Every structure is written in C-alpha cells, then in structure tokens.
C-alpha cells in the first residue's frame, strides 16, 4: 500500500514545550550577494554597514553584515520550528547585536520557548520565544525575543524532529561589538550625511519625506533568501484561502527594514552601530504595491563615549499616506496602537524603539 | 548605400550539423551574487550548497555552486547557438555533476549535436544535443543531454560563427566529485532537517505542502543573469505574437529549480550531493503569477557508502493546485504525460527523476 | 513645543553655486552582489566585464566593475545633492572610465557645478555639473558631465550640509586603464561572439532583434541599490501627484544600460573596454512593463593598437516597437530628437554615442 505523506512544519500551541530549545535546521553562509539583495531593497544611509572604509575607520575588520539582515535571518530561520503555522507576529523585544558578523560567516539559529498561553477566547494561543543567531564559532551575533499568535492543538503531519541538543546562554551579553569598545576615531572622510548626535533633541519629530513602494518579486525574493518558510509570503494559493488579506502578505521583518531604511538619511547617516530595538509591533499588514513611509520621534539622547553618543528613536511606519499628512490631520502617531482606547492609526504597519550609536561633531 | 543588418541567433533544423560541436560564446565568472540571486528564488534545504561549514564537513573546499545553477547556466549558454529559435524544450536526460564548481570559477559551455530529425508533419524538427559546462581549468562540472523542437529551414540573418575548435570527451565521467569519494564524516552540527536516507521507502509518496508564486521580475532577472537569450522569457512584444501563451513564459530550467526546491525540506534536508537527473520533461508552460507545487515518489533506495546512501525520486511539479488535492481527485500524477493514453494531468509543468546522496542516521 | 522637521534633499536653482563642489555622502563598497544584480537585468556580451579569465587575458588583475554600473552609481550618488528635486535629466556628455574599478573597492562621488541658468519661461532652470567617482585610493574610475532641469528657488527644508572640503582635478585624464595600454594579447579562448572590429563599416545600421521588458521590482531594486534617492523611481504616492507619467518612472541610467546591453551581442561581443559615451539624451520616459529595443549606427572606426581598434556607434533605444519596424515605416531614427523640426520619433527613450575598443581578427 502506498504511504502518502504531507509533511507540515511549524508548531501549534500544544507542540511547544516551555523551556525547550529548538535548533533551527537552516545552516547558511552569508555572502556579498545577500548583502546586495538586502541593499537593493533597503537604502540604508548608515555608513558602517555599506562601506569597508567606514567600517575599518571605526575598528571593524570589514564591512559587517547589517544587523537588520541578522534579525531577519533569525526570525526567518525560526519559522520552520516556531511560526510556520502562526496566525500573526505580535511583538519584538530586546533585540541586540552584541558582535559583528561578516560576509563569509556561516549562521545558525535556535529558539528557547520562554512561555506560552491560550488567549481568552480559547481558540488560539500566544507563544513567547527567545531566538539567538550564532556564527560558525558559536559567537552570538543577534538575540531577540518575539511573540506569535498560533492555533490551538498540534500539527498532525509534523515529522519527528532531529535531536536539538543545543543550549542558549541565560542572558545575552552587551549591545556593542568589542571592536567598537574604545574611543571613536574621527571619520574616514570629508562630507557625509548631516545628522550627527548633536543635531537631535529629545522630543524632536521627523517626518521622512520619501516613500518606498514594495515590489511583488522583491519581497518574495527576500523571504525566500532569508529561508522564511511561511506560505503567507510566497504562496498565493495558500494565501487566497488562509490569509487575512486573501493574498500574499509581506514578511514583517522586511516591513521593519524598509521603515528603518526610509528614516536613515535623517537619523542614521552619522550612525556607527545599532544598539538595539525594543517594544516593536505590527499593527497591520502590508501587501505588494503598498508604499511605506516612516516618521521618528527622539525619546532619549545620551553621551556614550568619546566621539559618539546614543540617540533613541521611536519609529513608526505607515502605508500609502505620508506621515506629515497624517500629523496634519491630527493623527496620534507615536502612541502604541495596542491598548489605544481611541485614535487608532489604521495606516500604521510597524512601530518600534531603536537606539543608535551616532558620531558627534563636538 | 546603407547596409542594414538584423542579426538573429540560434539555429533552425538545417543549420545543425550532426557531430558538430558549438562552443557557446558566453564566458562568465560565477560569483556570490549569482548564488544569492539563485537562493532568493529557490529555497533549497540541501545543506552542502548553502553552508561553507556543511560543505567542508563532507570534504569540499568551499560551498559549491548549486548543481541546479550549473544546469541552468548550461542550458542558457547554449540558447545562443542551439535553441534561440526553438519552439519548445522537450526533454532533459543524463544530467550529471561530476565535479564541484566553486564561486570564482569561470564557466563556458559547448554542445555536441547528437542527432536531428524532422517530425512527421514535416513543418518542424527535433534536435538532440549534449551540453557540457567546464571551468577555467577545463574541468567538467555539468553534463546533460536535451532535445528541442525547432522550425525547419535556416536562420537567414545569422552572422557567420567564430571558429568552434573545441572537442568534447566521448562520455562524461562519474556522478560524484572526487572530494566526496571516501566515507562520509559525521555531520558538522546538532539538529538539522529530519529526512535522512533511513526515512524513505520505495513507493512512498510525499506531497510538499508549501507552494511558490513566481514573480514577474524575478524570473526575468534569472533568465538574464543566466545568459538565456531566448526572447520568449523577457520580450513581451515578441511574446505577444510568437509565444504559445501570447505572453512571456518562464524558462523551464527555472521551473525545474522551483519544483526541486519546493520538495527539498522533505527530501533533501540531509542531502550531500545531486547524483543526477534523468527523463525530464515539461508537459506545459508556466507564466509569472502561477504558483508551483511539488510531489515526490520514492522509486529506488540504495546503500552507497559509509554514512550515506542514495535515494531516487520521481518528482512532479504542478501549477495552481496543490498535489494533495490532485491526488484526492484521483489524478495519475507520476506516470509520464508523454504517451499517456488518458488521464493527462493538465496542471503538470515538469516531471523528472532525481537521485540524491543522503546522510544515513544508522 | 514639539519641533517637527521634514528634511528634503537635492537642490533647486538658487541652491546651486557655480564653482562649488559637493561631496556626495554615499560611501559604498562595490561587491559581487552588485555585479550580479546588474548582470541580472543587463545581459551584456562584452567579455571583459563578465569573466575573470577574459579580463586577465587583457592585463586586468580581475574582472572589473562594469563601466555602466560606475556611471549609474555616479549619477545616483549625486541625486542627494544635485537632482533629487529635478524635473528631468537632460543630457550626458564626456563620460569616461579612465581606470578599472574592482569588486571590493569602496566608492565615493563628488559634483562640480559648471554652470546654471534659468530657462526662458523663467519657471525653472538648467544646472550643469561634472561628477567624478573615485575609489578608496582616490583613483578616478568614472567622470561625466550631465545637465538637469530643476525648479526655481530654494529647498526650504534642506538640512545644512556637512563640510564639502573636496577638490576635483580640472580635466579628467585619458579613456583607457593603464593595464590596457600595451598591445592586446590574443584572446584566451576558442569561439566567442562574432562581431570583431573588422566586421563594422562606417554607415552600417544594425537593428538588434531581441527586446527586454522591464520588471517593476527589478528597476526599483536597482535604483535602491545604486543609492538613487529620487522618489520618482520608487515612491508611487509621490509619483501619482508629481510624476509627468502619474506613476513611477524608470531611472534613465538604467534605460541606458538596457539599451547598451540589448545591442551588445551584435556590437560588443569582441569588446575590451568602453572608451566613452557622449551626447546622450532621454527624449522620453520609460515605465515598468515597457519593452525596450536598441538600434546602432556605425559612425567611426579607427585603428587603435595592435590587436584592437575602436568603433564609435550612435545608439538609439526605443520602447514597445522593434526598431526594424520603425525603419520600415521610414522613421528618422538616428537624428537627435532635440532640435528636430519634424519627424520626431515618439518611441525613442535614449540616444547616445558610444566608443568601444574591440578585438581585431586581422
């Protein structure tokens, strides 16, 4: 008799064991091609990530892999074990990049199940994981927590796992690669973007004027390249019946990357490193053809070291209407959507807190 | 008097000489960018091709270029001399990858005309070629035969060829790079995909659940990158009048790559090398916007060496309907379409036999 | 009180100072990924730019970055300071590539304001700049002049510039990398494309038969990768109100690249280097979905050195109708559109003069 199998991956609520660590099976060498495909969608003005000269001028041995690419790889690698059945991605917290990853490094990721609970309606649950991305030497290059909404029960057709004999350190270490620990040497060049640490004051609001329309092919290429295996992003047949939008939806990590890139000429042009992301959420979904825009609010500014300081921004991404127009209409752009009693901004697609190490002029 | 030329390439039936070898003019260094663009469309779970760590753990000096990319380059390089006038690509046979190609290698290809004959209607013909892809040292990295349907007569505007003083070895050598000849060392990592050699039994059918919708830009980018010069894939003006579909059609080598990638988490996650493809055909064409799915049937399993064995799959690719649904409707999925008296599966876009070297658990 | 800023970049007519040099802030390492993305849109037959073997055979140390990619980077890097507010790109002149750029080089660009003047209607002006692209050692790898049509007045929300303490040499040096100065060694291979220096005669017209349809994602990816920051290419919301086409328009440097690539099998298959482009203009715009075609006319042929000679082509790009059909209808294809009293070719999207160093058979 013919044995017909239809393997499915990801987990439903009862498939998760609190305390378990899943070693995600993907094993990928990051190369210059990935960097270019990332740069072809996300026009990031932060010099360290784009220029070997700029990177070496701050003490790194080469141009590092963009932290946002690492975050996207971490999320995507984890889909196979964590969220391939998920209904929604709910939150990012405590995202950090404690060491530089370079092209040529080979990456893996694992996820620790921190918690899980059914939602009050009882027909689904929230799972809370911490994902860590390490290179071929076991060096931690990205760590973050996220929450996802998953269906109840179990995935019937899930093949038995290969052994997951991995452990995660209890708390990930600092927020800055060790190469960037000392005082910051002066910039390697004349000219450059205008927005140094000195240019920001707490309370400043910046509406970033240029938007980016999302291409149908490009978001699928990125999801595929990242090894994101959720059919919602690339399988139109699945999406017609199973997507809230009745069509393919852009992977949230890409939406976040677009919004950070759109803000970058105004906020990160004198940037040196991403000190972390926190309190991130996706209030609504994005489709191919949507145009994304960004706005930033300065919520903290601190001296960090000789030649540089940190600035913390609250970043908001919206679709199809420039944020300046929304502010003119009185939109409450920077209050988190979750828990808003009124004034929900239906155009909002992402909100997150980002801390950057920026060069100082003074 | 003005001399107006309108050069055209490829060959019609009378342009082919049996026994001739055409040295295709393309001369291309394969780089990490090509690997990434390939990985951005084809999410392949086979670790050797994606991870330098995994590749070195089996004895290769670096992550090799995906065999499927080599096959695609070979087909595409040959279009200029062989199939730029072709009406259809009919068959692939005896595809093998006897040596590893690495990023940085520079590739050329040549095609030997094995045979040609008019079809019975007399208004077209079938040409049968063997194409070989070699690196800068003349090392054979890919060999295959294919058949194409071409118009009768000659291409009037074809410029005279540069000399083709190349020879092909009579029969291509083995199916495995010499670095992989010895016993297979244990895997380099904990965890990984579940489907080892031990998990397959002859007769097993696997329907791969996730599909992939094809982007308009991405399939044109790949055809262009591969140096496929047939206007059917990228020239909408040509295609409106000359394509069977009245629009651009996705290059068949890409369709094959999508279908193999869609099957890969369930069949190739413990894969080490592609031992060959055979008896491949494209029963119908694929357009941008179509969603591809795959199904596999295990047709042979053999012990090959210490730590690994070979499994031979019959793979089928279909469009816009998941294979599980087709099987539920009683579709005869795994019988070749050519020569079927009845029960033709109109959704089928590719069928091929693939042999993989897979790790064993036992 | 909240300070809301909406920074805008580029310059309007009164923002330009004749004699000023703007050091563009982008600082980008060119990598194999950029080369592959470029090759995935522009199928260029010129061997030097695609093959390490071919490049080394003429004395270069590696496969160089395509000159057309350098020109595109130069134009795009300058948008932030020069043309982000521009209404139209009017002309390219004196484009040259005096040194080879290799993958791994880090590029910057600067623009010297050569002149500016209001147009007669008084509601806009023309700015004329010379842009230079240099590598990490200050070596000039691309120089060109261009003219753009800009609005009158000033950009109110433009942040104050970082200091631009850069100087440009008065006149860029030669047209050939020093590695290519000596006699040309024979080709590294048997076979290759047919069109050597010997095959062209002044007055020859060549209609290139295969067209290329432009993908929506791919042209946005390229504009983003190049760091072109004009919203016209990627921001559909902006374009609906501010584009002449009421939708996104393809960056002209890409249109030029497509047209040169479409001509390349017939003109550049025996090419060694681009000796320069001149008298270039874009008579009309191109949108995603348009199909581009090319035609060439030989306007000069000279002996240049042992083994090679130069050929100068007048190249024309048209959209959605093959040039052979336009010629059959009596179109005056090779007369520049600007200043034509009658017989304007409305399908024409680019025209430019290109000089190539080509191998000789004799």
From TrEMBL, chains A, B, C:
InterPro entries: HotDog_dom_sf, MC_hydratase, MCH/BMMD. It comes from the Bacteria. Residues 153-184 are annotated as: Disordered. PANTHER family: BETA-METHYLMALYL-COA DEHYDRATASE, MONOAMINE OXIDASE-RELATED. This is MaoC family dehydratase. It comes from Sorangium atrum.
């Amino acid at each position: 008799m013919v044995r017909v199998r239809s393997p499915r991956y990801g987990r439903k609520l009862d498939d998760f064991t609190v305390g378990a660590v899943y070693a995600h099976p993907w094993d990928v060498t990051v190369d210059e091609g990935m960097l270019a495909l990332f740069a072809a969608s996300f026009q990031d003005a932060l010099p360290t990530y784009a220029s070997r000269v700029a990177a070496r001028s701050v003490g790194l041995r080469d141009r590092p892999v963009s932290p946002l690419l690492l975050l996207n790889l971490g999320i995507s690698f984890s889909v196979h074990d964590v969220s391939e059945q998920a209904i929604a991605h709910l939150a990012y917290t405590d995202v950090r990049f404690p060491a530089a990853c370079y092209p040529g490094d080979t990456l893996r990721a694992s996820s620790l199940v921190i918690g899980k609970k059914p939602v009050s309606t009882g027909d689904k649950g929230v799972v809370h994981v911490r994902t860590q991305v390490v290179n071929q030497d076991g060096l931690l290059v990205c760590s973050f927590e996220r929450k996802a909404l998953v269906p109840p029960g179990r995935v019937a057709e899930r093949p038995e796992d290969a052994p997951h004999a991995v452990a995660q350190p209890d708390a990930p270490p600092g927020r800055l690669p060790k190469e960037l620990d000392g005082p910051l040497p002066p910039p390697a060049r004349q000219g450059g973007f205008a927005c140094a640490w000195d240019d920001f004051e707490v309370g400043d609001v910046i509406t970033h004027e240029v938007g980016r329309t999302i291409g149908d092919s490009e978001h699928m290429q990125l999801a595929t390249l990242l090894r994101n295996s959720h059919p919602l992003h690339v399988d139109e047949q699945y999406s017609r019946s199973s997507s809230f939008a009745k069509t393919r939806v852009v992977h949230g990590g890409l939406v976040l990357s677009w919004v950070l890139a759109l803000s970058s000429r105004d906020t990160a042009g004198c940037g040196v490193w991403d000190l972390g992301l926190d309190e991130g959420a996706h209030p609504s979904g994005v489709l191919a053809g949507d145009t994304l825009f960004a706005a930033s609010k300065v919520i903290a500014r601190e001296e960090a070291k000789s030649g540089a300081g940190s600035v913390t921004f609250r970043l908001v991404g919206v679709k199809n209407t420039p944020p300046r127009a929304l502010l003119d209409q009185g939109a409450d752009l920077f209050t988190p959507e979750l828990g808003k009693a009124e004034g929900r901004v239906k155009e909002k697609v992402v909100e997150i807190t980002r801390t950057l190490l920026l060069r100082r002029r003074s």
